[in-house]
Structure formats: structure tokens, C-alpha cells
Amino acid sequence: MSDVQQARSRVARALTIAGSDSGGGAGIQADLKTFTVLNVYGMSALTAITAQNTLGVHGIFNLPLEAIELQIDAVATDLGVDAVKTGMLSQVPIIETVARKIKQHNIPNLVVDPVMVAKGGAKLLEDSSQQALIDHLIPLATVITPNLPEAEVLINREIKTVEDMKEAARRIHDFGAKYVVVKGGHLEGDALDILFDGQTFEQYVSPRHETKHTHGTGCTFSAAITAELAKGTPIREAVATAKEFITCAIRDTLGLGAGHGPTNHWAYNNRHKN
Ligand SMILES: Nc1ncnc2c1ncn2[C@@H]1O[C@H](COP(=O)(O)OP(=O)(O)OP(=O)(O)O)[C@@H](O)[C@H]1O
Ligand SMILES: Cc1ncc(CO)c(N)n1
Fold first, then answer.
1. Does the beta carbon of 19 lie inside 6 Å of ligand 2?
2. Per-domain residue ranges for the chain?
């Protein structure tokens, strides 16, 4: 096979820059599982190690900046990256380092999941870091995927209705992200997400499943968008696939753990079977 043929047929590659969740439902583990199910080659740069299960976060250990930088350098200079997502980046220097590295390596298709708080309430982003996300990372983002509490923090305003979600999307778009997806998982009623491209809104709706097993839904959703962007899928279709992926993963629960259990990453591939 010629080099050109090889380049055309090679697998899409995605990198996740995020924290490790020992429980496997969120963070790096959720991202790599999602990439694999969507047929994308997954790579990781860990920013922190968390001791975590379905009941809560029992410890957070941020990694040294040098360890974060070297992981990104190693991957970008050899294997190559078609799309990248960021998850837990708890401190200002980590955010600055990651933003600098993404720029330095010219990594395309950045999905920013502005992770702030774990399902059990533990803080994964220090308060002093919120502004650094706005200043350094969001302007580089192809897509940013805040949930409602995260969007409220970013725009410093309450969000109670779909109109509020749209206004939040407008304001977050003004921070410099190309596309904004405001996730409505925390509202009542159907699970409604909104995509804004700076001009028009697109809505993605699925029935709400009454379940406590929603640990890592945001990580999985943004990882699915990243995987699709790595393959070259256009944004509207990428978000539609991610919505279907997370809906299946929440619906076909694994029922693990005594608290907020993980979602089912295999469910998307089994969706047409009985
Ligand atoms: N109970 C539910 N039933 C169906 N879809 C849901 C439910 N909860 C969330 N979703 C969907 O899951 C996706 C993730 O949204 P959510 O707002 O839960 O993210 P998140 O709060 O960032 O998750 P996490 O912090 O656990 O990673 C969205 O597409 C949302 O609409
Ligand atoms: C490591 C990690 N990243 C993100 C989340 C948010 O779900 C979590 N609970 N843990």
C-alpha cells in the first residue's frame, strides 16, 4: 500500500487529557471506552488521579506539570491526533499548560468538557481556575459542552428554562468557542441538549430515564463527540451520534455500585439487537 493509501485508510486517533476515575465510569476510562466502541484509536494524557467509586471521590492527586506536558508531547510527536478532548483540569497552571501544548502541536478539533463537580458533589475544578478556562482554553475550543451548573458558573447567571439555555449558549459562544452544546441533563422533563453555532440553534431530545446510574454521562457524551470529529464527521451529526450513544448507555444500565453507577458503554453497539 502506498503512503497515501495508508494515510486514507488509517484509523482515526483521539486524545483525552483528563483525570483518572478508578471506578471506571468517568474521566479517562469513560473516554477510552467510548473511543473504542466508536472505532477510534484512543490515547491519554492524565492530569490527575482520583480515588473514586460510585459513592464519591475519596482522594485527588494532581500530576506534576512536567508529567502532563511530556504525555502530550509523546503522543502528538509520534502517533498524531485527529481530535482531542479535555476533562478534569483542576488548577490554573494545568489549564495553562494544556492550552499551550494544544496550540504548540496544532492539535485540531478540541472538545472542552468544563468539568467542575463530580456527581457526588466533590469539586474537580478549583474555584480560582474558572476564569483560566475562559481565558486560555475556551477560545481554542471547537466545541464546549457545559452541563447546566457549569454553564451557570461560566456566565454567572441562573439557568431555569430552555430560553435561559439558549442565552447561556450565546454568552459562552462569545468567549470564543466555535460551537457550544449546553446539556440539559440537570433540567426536569425530557433530556434536551442545545447546539449553537453562533447563528442557529439545534435541539437534541431524548426521553429522560429515571435512574441514579448517571456517573460519567458528561465525559462519555463529550468523548463520543470527540471520536466523531476525529473521523471527520460534521458537527451536527457528531452531536447526534453522541446523543444516541449516551441515551443507550444510560438506558441499558449495568446497575453497578451502591451509589451513582456508571453507564453502559457497550449499549450503543447493541442498540439494534433485542
Ligand atoms: N436521566 C437521563 N436520561 C436521559 N438522558 C440523560 C439523563 N441525564 C443526562 N442525560 C443526557 O446525558 C448527557 C450528559 O448530560 P449531563 O447534564 O448529565 O452531563 P454531566 O452533568 O456533565 O455529567 P457528569 O458530570 O456525570 O459527567 C446529555 O446528553 C443529557 O441530556
Ligand atoms: C476523573 C473524573 N473526571 C470527570 C468526572 C465528572 O463526571 C469525574 N467524576 N471524575
1. yes
2. 3-267
End-to-end CA distance of the chain: give it in Å, rounded: 40
218 a catalytic residue:
yes
Query: Given this model, what pLDDT does residue 126 score?
Result: 80
Task: Report the length, in residues, of the chain.
Answer: 274
Phi, psi of 187 (to 5 degrees): -85, 175
Report yes or no: 112 and 143 within 8 Å, Cβ to Cβ: yes
In single-letter form, the type of residue at position 78 comes to D
- Supply the residue whose CA is at minimum distance from atom 18 of ligand 1: 185
User: CA-to-CA distance for 233 and 241, rounded, in angstroms?
Assistant: 10
Cα–chain-centroid distance for residue 260?
A: 18
**Contact, 211 vs 253, CB < 8 A?**
yes
Pairwise CA distance, residues 124 & 218, whole Å: 14
pLDDT digits 0-9 by tens, 36-68: 999 999 999 999 999 999 999 999 999 999 999
Pairwise CA distance, residues 246 & 267, whole Å: 9
ipTM of this predicted complex?
A: 0.97
* Amino acid 9: pLDDT: 63
Give buried/exposed letters for 120-139 (b at 16+ CB in 10 A, else e).
eeeebbeeebbebbbebbbe
Q: Percent of the chain at pLDDT above 70? A: 96
**In this model, does residue 5 exceed pLDDT 70?**
no
In the structure, what pLDDT confidence band is assigned to residue 121 with cuts at 50, 70 and 90? confident
Separation CA 62–CA 224 (nearest Å): 25
Ligand 1: centre distance to CA 39 (Å): 23
Find out whether 9 and 39 touch, Cβ atoms under 8 Å: no
Please enumerate in sequence order all residues whose Cβ is within 8 A of that of 71, keeping only pairs 6 or more positions apart, or say none: 44, 45, 46
**Second CATH level (architecture) for the domain 3-267:** 3-Layer(aba) Sandwich (3.40)
